[in-house]
Write a structure and sequence with these properties.
mainly beta, Elongation Factor Tu (Ef-tu), domain 3, eight-stranded antiparallel sheet, 52% strand
């Protein structure tokens, strides 16, 4: 089984690569509804609505056009390449709304910016 180093991945927002990316996370979930009936020994459920969000951390870089695309309230296309762009690598993409961009720093550290985006519509999974 092949494993992948985190440093191979990258993130694009509206076709702009985000520089100084330190961490990213994709959260893809499904709501459920219970359909258990009298006589069942265990609860049973049905999948209903799917949801997804992306979060990440960058070192602040005002010259980075990718970071410039992270504007709270804006609707963007996110492309996440966890394996890079080699043939047959996985790509997650979809339209989302940037919901937070929170610069913070301490006196002895870098300016770091956590951000989040919530999906609006389908998260597509494909091969590069």
């Amino acid at each position: 089984m092949a494993t992948v180093l985190g440093k191979a991945g990258f993130l694009r927002i509206s076709a702009l690569t985000v520089a100084e990316l330190r961490r990213y996370a994709l959260n893809h979930t499904s709501d459920t509804t219970e359909d258990t009936v009298i006589g069942d020994s265990y609860k049973s459920r049905k999948a209903t609505l799917l949801d997804w969000r992306v979060s990440g951390d960058v070192y602040f870089d005002r010259a980075d056009l990718g970071q410039g695309a992270i504007t709270v309230g804006s609707t963007v296309i996110i492309e996440l390449y966890p394996e890079g762009t080699a043939a047959a690598s996985r790509l997650y993409s979809g339209q989302c709304i940037i919901t937070s961009f929170d610069p913070a720093a301490s006196h002895d550290g870098m300016v770091e910016v956590p951000f989040t985006a919530e999906g609006t519509g389908t998260l597509t999974t494909s091969a590069v």
